[in-house]
Every structure is written in structure tokens, then in C-alpha cells.
Structure prediction request, 227 residues.
Amino acid sequence: MALRQDIPLSLWRDEPVAWSASAGPVPYPEALERMEDSVAAIAAGRAREQVWLLEHPPIYTAGTSAKPEDLVDATRFPVFETGRGGQYTYHGPGQRIAYVMLNLARRGGDVRAFVAGLEQWLIATLAEFGIAGERREDRVGIWVRHGGGEDKIAALGIRVRRGISFHGVSLNVRPDLSHFSGIVPCGVSDHGVTSMAALGVNAAMADVDAALQKHFAGIFAPVIQLS
Prediction:
């Protein structure tokens, strides 16, 4: 189970969350439309809370704090502006994205606690594969000590509307790390980006998904697997 000593117990609910995964890359506009519809349905009480696992084709996304100078190559991949927090990030094949749509109003309403829960979720998942992920007070995301420095292995970016969270986290399983060179990832230029594969862990995506599900259930709620 995920470690919960730093996470308020108010984040936990025993009502199951709907859990699904898409097999192939999902275009970003299609994913955004589905998230918007799901958030509206959850807020209206017409749908369960949801976690959706997927991959995107290679894209760059700009959060609400993105700086124009951090887009190094605007022609390399499509660039999408998004309402999530954060700066520029890359998404692409080999990266597991989890869009997390939870009713935070029913989980204490503490966005900082929610972010801490997402961080612990990623840290516990990485630990399943022998990777020591760490938080940093001055930098968003999950970091690993590597090659005498620190590299980012997972990113977080969320938005909350009507008390419902959306967007979420991305974990670098085995993406093409050269694709990050078209941006300054999350505005951090003095640290690198890494992946599980680059650290020597060649895990199948299905195994990563299983670990994500296990540790989500240890922090937020049990899940119902959807097709």
C-alpha cells in the first residue's frame, strides 16, 4: 500500500472510482473534450469519479504559467494551450498519462493535500520498480538522483472546476527523451529529464498500470475497472 502518513485521511473515500485505460495514442483535443464532459457529469452527480490512463501522440502543452521563451522549437510538434497549472511539458508515446477527475469538495477541499497525494502516488508506484522518486520543495514533479545530479521522471499539472479535479500526472516509462529538447520542461533548465527505461527499468506499460492502480487505491479510493 502507498504510504499515507503525510497525506490527510480526508483524501480517502470508500466509494469506488471508475478506472479505464486507452490502448492507443489519443489526440489531445479528443482527450480534452472527454475530460470536460466527465468533469461536468461528475459535478452534476451523473457519473462516478474517474481515472483515465492514456498516451498522446507527440505534443507540447502550455500550462497557465508557460513562458514564450521556454518554447524552444514551436515547429517540432503541435503545441496546445491548456488550462492546467504549470508551464510547458511534453507528452508522447511511452509516457503514461493519468487524467484524474476526483470530487475534491468531498475530499476535504484541500488542493495542496491533493497534490501531495498525487506525488505520493507516483513515488509509491516508482518504488515498485526499485526507483527512488523524491519531492522537491522548490520544483514541481517527481525527481530521481541520477549521474551526480537530479532528473525529472514525472510531472504534475492540475485544474479544479466546480470542485472537480482534472488533467493530472505523467510518468516517463519509455518515451523518446530527445523530444523534450523542443521546450524547457516545466521551466527548469538546470536539471535533466529521465525515464524508467533510461534508468535501466524496462517495465511493460501494463505492469506500470497495475502499480498505479494498486497505489491509487492506497491513497484515494478503491477502483472499478472499466473496459
Summary: Helices lie at 28-43, 111-127, 205-219. Confidence is low (pLDDT under 50) at residues 1-5. The longest strand covers residues 149-161.
